[in-house]
Amino acid sequence: MKPICQNWSQWLNETRFSALTDEMKAQNMKWLEAVRDVILTYAQITQNDVVLDIGTGTGLLGMKALEMQKCQGKVIFSDKFQDCLDSCKEFLEKNDITEGYEFLLSECEHIALNECTVTKALMRSVLVHIVDKQAAINEVYRVLRHGGLYCAFEPIIRSNTKYWELLHPEFIDRYDEFKAAEEEFSKDPLDPLFNFDDKTLKKNLEEAGFENPEVNLQVVKSKYVVQREMIPAWFTTPPSPTTKCTKERFLMYFPESVVNKFMKDVENFLTGKEISLKTNAVLICAKK
Ligand SMILES: C[S@@+](CC[C@H](N)C(=O)[O-])C[C@H]1O[C@@H](n2cnc3c(N)ncnc32)[C@H](O)[C@@H]1O
């Protein structure tokens, strides 16, 4: 399969919405803003803070922190990828915002800052893309000043609704084999999307040195009617620019013709049906 997404800023601006209708996209944006506001409320940003937005992407958290500081404090937009920092820079320049921020090109597993240099560390949907979560959390602890706060939101994909739970063996060829494949790839310890949950994150935080970190699991249930055109996008939209889409994951187990038939069966079975989905996430608030 040809790659359909070149880099993170493209993924954030376009790819992640490709399976959604306009209405769902608008709901998604509202939800992202609500998540952002919860993280920032927990973080209690003031103008005295040095805020590190780790894996800033297009600046969802950092831009709001900057607004809360009225550009009189310091926000560090940090990401492993230059295209993300360029995207933040472009937005800031377009809006004539010239003060109160810096950029840091850095991996979160090795943050290029001295220890005890920031007062607030923020993250949204970053650990879910990192294989070694302990290394990233150790780094957050290291760069935070004593009394500093780490506030984050991460999806817990391992326990989300699986395809096989939405389907029925009577209508899907080789249902049991696809169910087994999905169960297997969801347990790969080297797959960053699946190799953690709320309990492992709490352990990581404690091991890094945080005392009594709050890790609140949230389970969200949603319902919607499936439209035929959504289904190919479910299978071919990559969860990040560098990870396999669901079709590619099934191709590790079956020839392409079999996967294509499965996708058609899913399309025919689910189109027009109302489905119920369970999505899980954690909200983290930890003080050094
Ligand atoms: C799902 S996006 C989230 C972006 C942003 N935090 C938001 O809420 O919109 C994941 C971000 O993590 C960044 N990222 C991926 N691997 C990274 C790493 N090893 N170190 C730092 N950032 C990383 C990506 O470039 C991307 O911006």
Query: What is the string of helix and strand elements?
Result: HHEHEHEEHEHHHEHHHE
* Relative helix content: 25-40%
Under the CATH scheme, the architecture of the domain at 8-160 and 192-225 and 277-287 is 3-Layer(aba) Sandwich
* Biggest sheet strand line-up: 3-2-1-4-5-7-6
**Amino- and carboxy-terminal Cα gap:** 45 Å
Provide the CATH topology of the domain at 8-160 and 192-225 and 277-287.
Answer: Rossmann fold
User: Which runs of at least 5 residues are low in confidence (pLDDT < 50)?
Assistant: 1-5
State the shape.
globular
Major beta-sheet overview: 7 strands, mixed
Q: What is the CATH first-level class name of the domain at 8-160 and 192-225 and 277-287? A: Alpha Beta
Please tell me the overall pLDDT. 93
Keywords:
disordered N terminus, 7-stranded mixed beta sheet, alpha/beta, 7 strands, binds S-adenosylmethionine, Rossmann fold, globular, 11 helices, 288 residues
Structural overview:
It is a single chain. Helices cover 40% and strands 21% of the residues. The chain contains eleven helices and seven strands. The N terminus is likely disordered. It has a domain of 198 residues: Vaccinia Virus protein VP39 (Rossmann fold), CATH 3.40.50.150. By secondary structure, the chain is an alpha/beta fold. Helix 5 packs across helix 8. The termini are far apart. It has a seven-stranded mixed beta sheet. The chain binds S-adenosylmethionine (SAM). The site of S-adenosylmethionine has 19 residues, from helix 1 and helix 3.
